[in-house]
Predict the 3D structure of the following.
Amino acid sequence: MLARVTRQPTEVEIACDESGSDGENLTGGNTDVFAHGSVDVPMADASAAIREIRDRIRSPAEEYKANHLLREKHRAVLEWTLGPSGPLHGHAYVHLTEKTFFMVERVVDLLLGDPAGAAPLFRAGAHTFGDERWKAFLTASNALLRVRGDADADPGAPVDAFLRAVDALAEQAPDLRDRDMTDVADVLKLLGGARSRAADHRARLLAAPALIPVLNPLLPAIVRTAARWSAGGRAVTLVHDRQNMLTEERIEWLRETARIEGLRLVVARDDTRVQLADFLAGIARSIASHELNGRGDATLTALLRPYVASGASGSAWGSVWGDERSKGRLFGAVHS
């Protein structure tokens, strides 16, 4: 009788980097999209790819970044990098976060205990409530959830400002019900009655800043990246560009939450795999942002799609995206 062979899970080292980080400032930052890129490419192959990109671009810069590839004069190099004959096709993944939707989802989940109401509220947005009211709601939500704030200010001020912003949106609640938008009216009513939860959240932040900041998209992106690469039982170690957000405590939290073997921080210029992840994240953020703002390039979006498609409805590693107009073009029909 043959002895049963126990197969050990395949071990893999995934290189990662991000683009578009503004910390917890999701309404007044420099970017509207956060991208987290990851690649499964051996060091030798990554080094060869970086040399090839340098040879094709021929810039005197010591360190290449995504913006070199995004210049119009290097369009052919960009298309090759993302395309089927390039170094990344089939060996890379990008997690995208639409920052505004991420924030709406966070505030609804935190105050109501369920993020389901975020999508209809977000879809209503500025075209339903008007630019001024919607912007005030987003700004107040950001101030309510962020860890950092004015230490000398009234600790209750963010709560009061948030509830005023909700009330301003809710003034249209009767009209919303007439327009078959009862779900939006219901979410606003519940948010307006969540003062105690909002105050409790602010009190916790003032007493002890959260180990896992609610509004920073980096940690959720890493968790979903790990889920993507560990599918099939692979044991995953992440190699990530240095990030102040990734403290020892948070790395340990990631080890437990994402069930990864480890997370090692490196300097990007010393690891060509991370340089490729940096290229991918920066390129993806730019392409996705252009789609979000109605300036998409159909060719580049099609080239990006294989890297961001979630693979199946409801997958554990799907990106966080609320804009219906751009979602199909970026992710295809299967994205959730």
Observations:
- Strands lie at 11-19, 33-39, 92-98, 235-241, 262-266.
